[in-house]
Design goal:
- By secondary structure, the chain is an alpha/beta fold.
- It has three domains: 248 residues, Alpha-Beta Complex (Amidase signature (AS) enzymes), CATH 3.90.1300; 144 residues, Amidase signature (AS) enzymes (Alpha-Beta Complex); 65 residues, no CATH class.
- It is built from 16 helices and eleven strands.
- Strands 5-10-11-9-7-8 form a six-stranded mixed beta sheet. Strands 1-3-2-4-6 form a five-stranded mixed beta sheet, sandwiched between helices.
- Helix 10 crosses helix 13.
- The longest helix is centred in the last third of the chain and has 24 residues.
- Bound molecules: glutamine.
- Glutamine binds next to loops.
Length: 480
């Protein structure tokens, strides 16, 4: 069987039938990675020793008659902002080039306990700041669907790894769109869970009030399976929620007939690529045929989301990134005195986008400007959250395009940060509101570029969002 066909369920069947062992499957994926990765640049580091040790343990336990854990033998890729004991974790930055964490983040620990095989770490924009993966200090990732184009970002390596079948599932992080947008641009389902649904312990923080960890997979069902394993309260993360974790597969396997789809006018205005618009409208039409009811809604504060996001996210980043001072982690460039050492370390270690954000954030938080920028942004953030609360009174989910444009060409937007920031226009509102969303493929443009449909759900509405995504996939919606 070719790796293209592997899913959590098919791996389980093959292991049970003994047509393949976890070790053989791991080997198959590493062989494929060594063939494809030099070109695509999805993985920054591989952890074969760890992977084979886990695979052997699964094979051995199974031989001894133990039953297979839920993600037995499933090869997964982990975004390089997530700490992995013994494997270099760079966050896509020079400043952490040689950083080897002494512990695992909670999500990696949970995946491994559930039987998953961690293949390695995936490329991303430096400290997850970006929408194209071009801000990685280790070179861009190529979009498997079109090698002259970006995979999206910042979790571009994770999205591309799944799209190119170099992993069965992957974890990314989403602060303003970094799971959903690369998922859309690479053509794989990708989910941002509700804020607090998944522990952030061991995640290298970008903007702590916005950061989420979530899955990419080949199918919606596998997104649900991975979410199931990583969701839930973690005593190591005070912001992780105690709300009970539903059984996502049965909960999302309900008929969708009669569900109300909120279509916010503000998301269908100018600036959307005509082909993206067409595919999104066709997706709505498909839901219509499944018995769902589109309802027109208003989300009047949408236009403020990008500026609000770029104030709050940069403010939090300027504070979070203060810890990279050449003393405790990674790179140190010596200087004549302490402040020169700081300056040289940070000046050499950080890339230009990270520096831009630290400066913007420091400015927004500084005395005299705090009220005018940061405080005001926090107030507007509440209004954006209220837009979502109102929307979910009238509709069960909200449907929008994930990205206004399909994958753009490498280098096309790097000179203009503002155009790059606008790539986030449909994803940042939900990040600010703390709600959940999935991006699912909804066909391709005439040039063969994947288009993503975003399904927003209320806080802890993962089952609802997955329910619609599964129905859409079953009805052939992924192909458009
Ligand atoms: N593209 C957005 C940014 O550059 C979102 C990044 C993210 O979600 N990590 O901040």
């Amino acid at each position: 069987m070719s790796p293209a066909a592997w899913t959590v369920a098919s791996i389980r069947r093959a292991l049970e039938a003994k047509t393949i062992s976890a070790r053989e499957l791991t080997k198959e994926f590493y062989a494929r990675i060594s063939l494809e990765n030099p070109r695509l640049n999805c993985y920054l580091a591989l952890s074969p020793e760890r992977a084979y040790a886990r695979a052997d343990a699964i094979d051995e336990n199974f031989r001894r008659g133990e039953s297979l854990p839920v993600l037995a033998g499933v090869p997964v890729a982990i975004k390089d902002v997530l700490s992995t004991r013994g494997t270099t974790t760079t966050a896509g930055s020079r400043i952490l080039e040689n950083y080897v964490p002494p512990y695992d983040c909670t999500v990696v620990e949970r995946l491994e306990t559930a039987g998953a095989i961690i293949l390695g770490k995936t490329n991303c924009d430096e400290f997850a700041m970006g929408s194209s993966n071009e801000n990685s200090a280790y070179g861009p990732v190529l979009n498997p669907a079109a090698p002259d184009r970006v995979p999206g970002g910042s979790s571009g390596g994770s999205a591309a790894a799944v799209a190119a079948n170099l992993a069965v599932a992957a974890l990314g992080t989403d602060t303003g769109g970094s799971i959903r947008q690369p998922g859309a641009l690479c053509g794989v389902p990708a989910m941002m869970p509700t804020y607090g649904r998944v522990s952030r312990y061991g995640l290298i923080a970008f903007a702590s009030s916005l950061d989420r960890i979530g899955p990419f997979a080949q199918t919606t069902e596998d997104v649900a399976r991975v979410l199931q394993v990583i969701a839930g309260r973690d005593p190591m993360d005070a912001t992780s929620a105690g709300a009970p974790v539903p059984d996502y597969l049965p909960a999302s396997n309900q008929p969708v007939k009669g569900l109300r789809l909120g279509i916010p006018k503000e998301y269908y205005g100018e600036g959307i690529d005509p082909q993206v618009r067409k595919k999104t409208e066709a997706a709505i039409e498909r839901f219509n045929r499944l018995g769902c009811q589109p309802v027109e809604i208003r989300m009047p504060h949408t236009a403020y989301a990008v500026p609000v996001y770029y104030l709050i996210a940069t403010a939090e980043a300027s504070s979070n990134l203060a810890r990279f001072d050449g003393v405790r982690y990674g790179l140190r460039v010596n200087g004549a005195n302490l402040s020169e050492m700081y300056r040289k370390t940070r000046g050499t270690g950080f890339g230009s986008e990270v520096k831009r954000r630290i400066m913007l954030g420091t400015y927004a938080l500084s005395a005299g400007y705090y009220e005018a920028y940061y405080l005001k942004a926090q107030k507007v953030r509440s209004l954006i959250a209220r837009d979502f609360a109102e929307a979910f009174k009238k509709a069960d989910v909200v449907l929008t395009p994930t990205s206004p444009v399909p994958a753009f060409k490498l280098g096309e937007r790097t000179a203009d940060p503002l155009t790059m920031y606008l790539a986030d226009i449909f994803t940042v509102p939900g990040s600010l509101a703390g709600v959940t969303a999935i991006s699912v493929p909804c066909g391709k443009t005439a040039e063969g570029l994947p288009v993503g449909l975003q399904i927003y759900g209320p806080h802890f509405g993962e089952s609802r969002v997955l329910q619609l995504a599964r129905a859409f996939e079953a009805a052939g919606g992924f192909a458009g």
